[in-house]
Design goal:
This protein has about 300 residues and is an alpha+beta fold. The chain contains nine helices and six strands; from the N terminus they run H-H-H-H-E-H-H-E-E-E-E-E-H-H-H. InterPro entries: FAS1_dom_sf, FAS1_domain, FLA_A.
Length: about 300
Amino acid sequence: MTCNLVSPFLFLFFFLLQFTCNLAQAPAMAPMPPAQSSAPASLPPTISSPPAPILPPIVASAPAPGPPGPPNVIKILGKAGPYSTFIKLLQITQEVGEITSLLNNSNSITMFIPSDGAFLNLKTGTLNSFSDQQKAELVKFHILPSYFSLSQFQTASNPLHTQAGGTTNREFPINITTNGTAVNITTGIVNASVSSTIYTDNQLAIYQVDKVLLPLQFFVPPLPPAPTPAPSKPKKDDPSLDSSSVNVVPSGATSLLPHMFWEWSILASYFSFLFACAYELISHMQDQHACDIMLCTFKWNLIRC
């Protein structure tokens, strides 16, 4: 049993002895080279630059304001007084856009604005009886396509043309007369007066009138166009005027007619005289035979002539 225990120990001893000899005979590891520094060996000397000047911050300038837009008619009327009815007409007929376009294009206009009280003085249902087109024409009838100051109405040439139409055939003219500082407007239906000045500049003038300006064409239809003249009917053929039935005398023969007529007249008178003498002579002759011979001779000579 002792021999059995010694044998493994001997085997283990020889194994460790052999392993130690192998390690002693293994080559030694080469020494690691020293680590090289990553920094460059030498750098050129740097030249310090002067510090940059400190500039003040740039502040963007605000753009120059553009030219002022045209005056806002709705705002002017809204601030001036009770003109809500006319403002509503401007909006529902879209005429306010046309007015703005005219003013944007540097056109001058003059407006006559009735107050709400002037609309209330109309006959009941008058405004509602107008069609949409007539309402638009009613608004335009209160606008002149040029600028008039109160003093310029004194030299206005009647009838005045409105934005609604021309001045002929009962279209949309108005007549303006002045009496001192009073300005009177006549439409053929209404006689109104300028009550006050609402707004004025060199492009737009707005005046209040005491009545609604009603166009004549709304109540009196325009004159019908003049009838075109009917083409003249050709006259019936007159035989006396027919050129084919007229004997055309040559111009040369025309000049001879008076002379020939005069000669034939003399000859006729002469032969009449001879015939009377011969008849008287023959009637006194006793020989009938001789009378007959003389009469026949006379007739023969007459025929020859």
